Amino acid sequence: MSTIKQRQLDPLYLALDLENKSHVTDFIEQHQLKGVPVKVGMELFYREGPEIIYELRERGHHIFLDLKLHDIPATVKRAMSNLAKLDVDVVNVHAQGGRKMIEAAREGLERASSETRPLLLAVTQLTSTDQTMLEDELLVHKAMPQVVGHYAKTAQQSGADGVVCSVQEVETIKQSCGHSFLTLTPGIRLTSGEVQDQKRVATPNIAGKTGSDAIVVGRSITAAEQPSAAYQKIKEEFEHGRQITRSTST
Fold this sequence. Notes:
11 helices, alpha/beta, TIM Barrel, 46% helix, 10 strands
C-alpha cells in the first residue's frame, strides 16, 4: 500500500435523507447544523449529483458518501477514482463484492488522491437484513455474526479501513480484526424512536458502550421537533457510552 494518509472518521454523521439540495440547505440553516458531519446517500446524490457535494464542502461539512458500490473490480476501481476527486471523507462498497473488488476500490482511491484519501468502508450486511432473510432469500445458512465477521476479516485483508455494520456485530469484529479497524454503525434510534424498515437497531448509548467508532443517524434528527437538540442529545449519549467503554478497558 502507498504512504498516502487516510482521512479521519467523525463520531456522528447526520444522514441527509431529504428530497433535494434546497431542502438540505434550508434544513441545515434553519436548525443551526452548519458544519456537522453528514451522510449523503443514493437518493440525494442521484438527484443532485456532484453539486450537492460541492455545496456541502463549501459549507464546511465532512462527508460520508454512502453509495455502496458493488460491481466488477475494474468498474469499481474507476468509480472510486472519480469519487476521490470529489474530496469526500468516507466512501463504501458492499463487502459481498469480494476481495478483488475491495482491493480495486482501494487502488482507485489511492490513484486519484494526493496527500490524503477517503476512508474505505465495506458494508457487511444491511441493518434491514435479519437471520430469516439471510437464510430464506440470500441462501446463506450461517449465523449473522459469523457471516458479518467473515466479511469484515476479508475486507480488512483486502485493504478496507473498516466496515459498516450493526451495533450487534461490533464486539465480534473488534475481537477478530483489532480495535484499530473501524466500525461505523447505522440503525441508531433514540429509545422512543420508530424502528421502521431497519431490524437490527440500537440506541446511541449502547452503540458507544459496544465500541462503535461512529454512528449514522437520520430520522431521529431530521424528524425531531427540535433537530439541533436531538443532534446534541444523540452525540452526548454516544460519547457517554464510549467513555464508559474506555474506562472499563483500562
